[in-house]
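Risk mitigation, structural track. In case the binding assays with flavin-adenine dinucleotide fail to produce interpretable data, a predicted complex structure has been prepared as a fallback.
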Amino acid sequence: MEVRTEEFLEKHVVPFASQWESEQLMPREIFKIAGTYGLTGLIVPTGSGGMGLGVVELSDVLKEIAAVDMACAFSLIVHNNLARSIAVNGSDQLKEMFLPGMLSGERIGGFLLTEPQGGSDAAAITTTATLKGDHYIVTGEKAWVSNGTRADVLSVYAQTEQGMLALIIPANLPGVCRGDKYSLLGGHALGTTGFIFDKVKVPIENVLITQGNGLRAALEGIDLARITVAAMCCGMLEASLHYAIDFAGSRKFKGESVTDLQGNQWRVADIATELAAASALTREAAIAHEGPDSSSVLAAKAKKFATTVALRRIADCMQLMGASGLQQEHPLARHLACAKMAEYLDGTTEIQNVVISRSLF
Ligand SMILES: Cc1cc2nc3c(=O)[nH]c(=O)nc-3n(C[C@H](O)[C@H](O)[C@H](O)COP(=O)(O)OP(=O)(O)OC[C@H]3O[C@@H](n4cnc5c(N)ncnc54)[C@H](O)[C@@H]3O)c2cc1C
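Fallback model:
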């Protein structure tokens, strides 16, 4: 099987992205469809049935999907990340139980680290997992779970006396309570919710990351996640720029369009320049991540720069379109909401500043 992003988008995302936003729902069937296009095991090693993509290729795929719908792209990468983690860190039993269903898209994954009292300090989570014989008893509350509305396979980070671990918790276990979907500025295809775990009995075989290694494991994937969010922002901005130029260029008033005005042409030149810079930084971070050296600072810089540029410059693209840019029939309002969302995903802009400045002092 090969990854066929373009066909997936043309047939299954382009015609529906606007509807998913207005109905605040992306149907779970999209994961099964994505599976037939190789999009559910993108970074699962080929030996485990996945596509084994490197970071550069993965970033390109996500950029392409985000150019149509970033919420769909982020939803898929959350699922893909968990499938990879199970393939790489899971016991044979865990792999057998969960990997085939996740690769086919029948079962959907979610990553549950953040809690309602704050997400920036991952070490401070308070959900507990207490060992009782051959089970853990899990109690606590999680917030901001992407795919939360539809996830069946939950990777839940919790504290034990020996430090943090991660458990795979099927969402249908007694004591797992799924919250209502969040109503947000946009990005509703992501299906974000909270979860409550009330003394959930989880078999010891469901340990994904052992006691004491949970925090390290959660943070290990963060650089890759930041690079992919940066790539998605570049995809949205590039799509917005082309859309706005086409739209504004086709509107004529007294034989002229607003794109004939030098002020607008220069604004477009600024947007294109910043897009090129964000894309180059993101590519550099992706290449570095594939190499032997740590790329945490580059990943933080790419994420900070690409999200900031996307947020400001997608708004500028809308401005070029006049008030029409605000209308939901055009994709820019969706992109703008997702660019704002991107400022929080996988660490806020302020947390990227912490990483970058720490490397300088
Ligand atoms: C759409 C969406 C989907 C998400 N999906 C997931 C998911 O699937 N799984 C998951 O676990 N999490 C998810 N998150 C949570 C995300 O990781 C957190 O929102 C993020 O880590 C920030 O946490 P917070 O929102 O609680 O802000 P807080 O940590 O409460 O921070 C509040 C403000 O203080 C600033 N701040 C905090 N600490 C510092 C510091 N040390 N220095 C300077 N400034 C600081 C922050 O930058 C922010 O501006 C998602 C978030 C969003 C918006």
